[in-house]
Amino acid sequence: MHTRDSHLNIIVSKVPQVTLAFWIIKILATTLGETGGDTVSMTMDLGYLTGTVIFLSALIVLATLQIRALTTRDRQGGDSTLNFTNLKENQGISDKTFAFRIPRGVDVISDDGSRN
To answer: What's the pLDDT tens digit per position in 98-114?
Structure first.
């Protein structure tokens, strides 16, 4: 049986690993970003505005591709993937969709403690 302290020790022991991984990824991303930006704007002589447009476009494309699917892993190791296809923005939803109706036989207690 695990106690609260043993769970805390497990969590705390993972902190240095997460911190190290974070800094490695941060340094690599910053270095690659700076190198790419310098290459486009200075070495290729395209200028800062063009470099910004190129990298912003890449960010939007890659983020869109990443958001099209969501995969989660449960504690038993099973994966569940949700694929988002045929997305339609701003379709409008009727207020009736979210209407709450109190079932018969249920007492509702208001904020002031009175029953309705």
So the answer is: 888 888 888 888 877 67
